[in-house]
Amino acid sequence: MHPNFMCVIPLNEGVESISTGGESLPVPVIKQPGRIVIMGDTGCRLSDSHGLYQECNNDSLWPFAQVARSVKAANPDLIIYLGDYIYRESPCPYDDKGCAGSPYGDNQETWEADWLIPAKPVHAAAPLVLIRGNHETCSRAGDGWFRYLDARVQPDACEDSTDPWMVEFNSMQIAVMDVANLEDENDNSLAGLFAGQLTWLDDQLDKPSWISAHRTFWGYGADDDTGKLTTPTEILQAAVAEVGLPEETNLLIGAHIHLAEVLDFGKFRPGKADNAIRFIEIYASSGRGVAEKEFVCSKGWSTILDDGAYTMEVKLNGVTRSYKFKTGAQEADILHLDLKELSQEESL
After folding, report:
1. Backbone angles phi, psi at 67, to 5 degrees
2. pLDDT in tens, 135-157
3. How far from chain centre, in Å, is Cα 168?
4. DSSP bridge pairs for 319
């Protein structure tokens, strides 16, 4: 299946140049990367189960080689590949000229066709952080993953799940999680495993950090076959609900969902409510503005108003919500705003 020989050489800190076979390779650096390319899901789809057979022999209809050259031309400092290297899982139909002669399955020829050869410009462009995708599970292309790309020494046998690891820079860290499988061999959720990994990362990460994984933590997408809306990462959401994200997390990176991704956090970004800036405006029933204030919600705000009916507008990140209230008579004439625990329903 994989008759070629592989060499793995650890690099000592401070290495200034690397070359093999007369070709120079990019040297890992610890400085803050300035230009980062993020990519994933690049293989050529040959799938009996989906009835999809991409024209792998046409660089315009499977443009990965073009993309790889563009990546090198961008001269990045770092490349993060988010998984799913191998898509040639079924034989090309005998009468399909678009993919005629294509290899398929977890073997050397397929890895060369889907990744190793077209991705040569990517490998020459910058150091890579390579992440396992669900196409690289043990039942699909897991043997090739551990042989060619996993960051650690190749295990004796394919492993369903692996521990997280980190890339260290002077002023940031990138954590890598293996979420190729969301369930174990008995179809039990791995939410507990991922919760433990997030807790471990919380102890390890001590700089502003990115968490990278093949699957998005908050993902919605259309089923490949039916087109119906799916929520494919509820297990990851359950792990976050149990233990939260590591404190130093300031970005999550994921792939897996093709074509488009829509994220909606309502009014507030998760995990940022205490530091969010609100802008408050209060109007009398006549439309006259009577008060306005910009403040960090953790500090709250109080103001005294005359008797009457008012409209209050709360603005955050370009979103505005309006609330009506009265003061005087049976109502209090002191308005105190404490939005620290304001829910996404935004009721006061």
Report:
1. -60, -40
2. 999 999 999 999 999 999 899 99
3. 18
4. 316
DSSP for 161-220, written as a single string = ----EEEE-SS-EEEE---S-SB-TTS-B-HHHHHHHHHHHHHH--SSEEEEEEE-SS--
Q: Are 226 and 53 in contact (CB under 8 A)?
A: no
Boundaries of every domain in the chain: 29-158, 160-264, 273-337
* Cα gap 130→162, rounded to integer Å: 13
**Is residue 264 scored above 70 in pLDDT?**
no
Q: Is the CB of residue 146 less than 8 Å from the CB of residue 155? A: yes
Specify the pairing of strand 78-81 against strand 128-130.
Answer: parallel
Asked if 80 and 212 touch (Cβ cutoff 8 Å), the reply is: yes
Rounded Cα distance, 81 and 90, in Å: 24
Q: What is the pLDDT of residue 201?
A: 97
- CB count within 10 Å of CB 309 equals 14
Beta-strand relationship, 36-39 and 78-81: parallel
Q: What is the pLDDT of residue 114?
A: 98
| 12-21, 233-242, 248-257, range with the lowest pLDDT | 12-21
Number of H helices, E strands in the chain: 6, 19
Predicted model pTM = 0.75
Distance CA 348, CA 339 (A): 8
Q: What are phi and psi of 68, to 5 degrees?
A: -60, -40
Residues facing residue 309 across a β-bridge? 326
Q: What is the mean pLDDT of residues 19-38?
A: 88
* DSSP letter (8 states) at residue 11: P
Q: What residues form DSSP beta bridges with 46?
A: 53, 88
Band (346; pLDDT cuts 50, 70, 90) = very low
Count of CB atoms situated within 10 Å of the CB of 4: 10
pLDDT at 337 over 70: no
How far apart are the C-alpha atoms of 117 and 275, rounded to whole Å? 47
